[in-house]
Amino acid sequence: MPKGIKGFQKGHKHSQETKDKIGRANSNRVESECDMCGKVSLIKPSTKKRYKRHFCSTSCYSQFRKELLPKEEQHRYGTGLPQNERIERMKARRDLNHYIRDKKIQRPGCQECGNKAEAHHKDYTKPLEVIWLCFEHHRLLHGQNPNLLSENKWT
Fold first, then answer.
1. Can you name the residues that pair with 132 across neighbouring β-strands?
2. In this structure, are residues 51 and 71 in contact, taking their beta carbons and an 8 Å threshold?
3. What pLDDT does 3 receive?
4. What are φ and ψ of residue 22, in 5° steps?
5. Contact 43, 56 (CB under 8 A)
6. Which of 51, 109, 110, 129 is 20 to 30 Å from 24 by CA-CA measure?
7. Spatial distance between the Cα atoms of 153 and 147, rounded to a whole number of angstroms
8. Alpha-carbon distance 26 to 7, whole Å?
């Protein structure tokens, strides 16, 4: 291959040294038992270290997610709101954002710490009645740990 040209080149062949490196990297496998069916398969050590659950195939993984994975660990847990509720929330956020854009409502600082704030709706049927909290306090209010707020009057 001509010097100075990077990337894949048509007709390029790996050197024997490179082939040996690739072979050694691919042969370094450890045994792992499938969490669904119990079958033992070989995987890379880095993969075994990175994930707490291991599967022999994508079909075992999908079967595990359907049957055994706790609801709390599923990435969409808690988002299963009915469509009319989602629409109502969307309208409330839209209306509030239009009022802010048109400068009919000022965005104050967080009621806890004074930092840049985002709106929290207690009742989505009243889109302009909001509590202003920073990112951290808003997340705390939504369930991670509401007791950390100095006054628990907003929950």
1. 119
2. no
3. 64
4. -65, -45
5. no
6. 51
7. 11
8. 22
